[in-house]
Structure prediction request, 341 residues.
Amino acid sequence: MKHLPAKYKAVVLPEYHPNVIRAMLGLKIKEKNIPILKENEVLVKIEAAPINPSDIAFMQGGYNIKKTTPCVPGFEGTGVVVKSGGSRSARALEGKKVSCFTQKDSDGTWAEYFVTHPEDCISLSNDMPIEQAACFAINPLTAYGLFETARLNKSTAIIQNASGSQVGNYIRALAEMAGTEVINIVRKKETANMLKEEGAKHVLISSEDDFQEKLKDLSHLLKAKTAFDAVAGQMTGILYNAMPAGSKVLVYGGLSGQPIGNIAVLDAIFQDKHLRGFNLNAWRKAKTPETIHEITGELQQYFIEQKLVTHIQGSFRFDEIVDGLKKYLGGMSKGKILLTP
Ligand SMILES: NC(=O)c1ccc[n+]([C@@H]2O[C@H](COP(=O)([O-])OP(=O)(O)OC[C@H]3O[C@@H](n4cnc5c(N)ncnc54)[C@H](OP(=O)(O)O)[C@@H]3O)[C@@H](O)[C@H]2O)c1
Prediction:
């Protein structure tokens, strides 16, 4: 193993703030000591870590994971395991390139070094590009898990909102491979144009006057009985009410920041419609480690063959975090922002 420095740089969130600008401007760059590892821990030298919507909600104190502050944000990233705590599974990762994540009350990935557990690392092929590996541990599996529901429902068509997102982008790609039609919903015309240029067939803009009518007509025409909702608020009810009888809406994000609403009572009673949540961690836990290994292997291959591609709009060093966040918040559909040492 290479010689390790005594200290490393990290982005630190001193405290949560509901106002995203204040939370963002409160971030500091601090030096931390390289920690002493517990037996079942590994030290990852981070090469890149993305900014996700969960990071924004986290900094605002509005995510389901709350860490003790001050803390280092960042739920995922990629790098090389440079040290292990000595357990068998930790040692097996030494020197390996990994995608890694954490959901624990410990420092996150927006730092030069990151401590995690072997089960929260995905060992990567050398052919996996760094920028794709940085965003590999959470969103592609989320898209896979959501799409699995559409497969189980035998849906020949699905609906998704926030379709300019990277999860939306992977879902479109998985649907194309499976021959499933996708009704994409976005909130901005420029995002609709971007998706159409990429080849998306059905794109609806939620801010247009006839949106709900168009959604109802198209979902009935295509028999779209599964919807993936990342927005929540009134949008959940709009999806639910527009869909044919027997439909399922999976809420997996709360981008609107609003409680779910607007569900038609008669549809709930008489149309056999279902609403439920989707949470990647629960989905993962319901699978054996062997199955997850197979799925991550399949997904890696898609990235290597460029059947799945994460759009990246820019890279910023950890000490440029505020500029990176501003760029991301200025246009999330343009792609991920990566943070690098
Ligand atoms: N449940 C789970 O386990 C799980 C796991 C992973 C991700 N997620 C969720 O998946 C969603 C997508 O994540 P991502 O990383 O793929 O996103 P992303 O690539 O960073 O893009 C975010 C997208 O959300 C759109 N958006 C933001 N606020 C919106 C609003 N109020 N109404 C409608 N659209 C809005 C953005 O559109 P503009 O360009 O118009 O801003 C952009 O297309 C997020 O909600 C995330 O929390 C859930």
